[in-house]
Amino acid sequence: MKKIFKASMMAVLGLALVTTSVATPADAASKKATVVSTTALAKTAYHGKKGYIYSSAKLTKKKYNMKNYKYTTWYGTKKATIKKSGKKASLTYITSGKKHGWIYSKYLTAGTAPINKQKRLENTIVAYNRAVMLGSSSTKYYATADLSDSYEDLGDCVIRGWEGDWAIGDTVSETSTAKTALLAAYNVFKGRFSSSQNANLAAMAKSIENTQVTANNIDDVQTALTSFSNTLGGVVKTLN
Description:
- Keywords: Signal.
- By secondary structure, the chain is an alpha+beta fold.
- It folds into 2 domains: 33-110, SH3 type barrels; 117-236, no CATH class.
- It is built from 9 helices and 7 strands; from the N terminus they run ααβββββββααααααα.
- A hairpin with a 2-residue loop joins strand 4 (74-84) and strand 5.
- The longest helix has 20 residues, at 2-21.
- The protein starts with a helix and ends with a helix.
């Protein structure tokens, strides 16, 4: 008798578990959002820090997590009003390059995204070191920066890499390649300073670019390179 009762109870429990675990079509449908209306939006720049971006306004599939794109500028072109779980909400259709989708409007902030300063510094160092590789062996040795350097450190590298003939080299060939490298390094930072600093650097760069290195003027050119690198390095230190 006990065995029969125990078996009956197990059968009832099993049926209850199966009944509660199977989702009905009505349950699945209730999780979808209903689109009430859609309107066009004048192309507007947005950025955000959180919230999922969905493939459609029905919110059935997540494509991206905005927390991974907080330095990305998105552009909104459409608005939608949806109804989900009995509540209305506003969505915005956003795009960035090939990425696109719908996100709750409350997660967006108008305007372009902030600059990822650390990433920009790292990219600057990579580009600067690429320019340095155009220089003489002495310039490469003294001017190359580490990826972990700050702008203060980077400015010191610029100054050190062309600080006299011991860093530039003492031949016409070495001075010419050092000149090429310094002008390339300048182009990495060009336009990132105040208007007066930009104008001053541009004038110095033009003068150096228009001067051909010869045995007769090598000392003057090296002095000009040192002066230019000191000026450039000094303002690089002020970047952030």
